[in-house]
Design brief:
Length: 73
Amino acid sequence: MLGLDWHAAFLKNRPSPIDRVVVIPRSCGVRGDANTEEDSAELADFFAKMVAEKFDVAIQIHGGGRYSNPFVP
């Protein structure tokens, strides 16, 4: 699951269908509001790591997708 710090803390050591939480960096409209300052290098590194994971399925359920769709290539 891609999520926030609290998701990782909440789900740690709990029985769940989620096997791990990857904390996403600050990103406009996803982790912060639409005016959040992003670190483009940090986001590029994050996306490269996620592509390298070679996920079988990615599902976006965060709002309408305007800001979150880039997290689901």
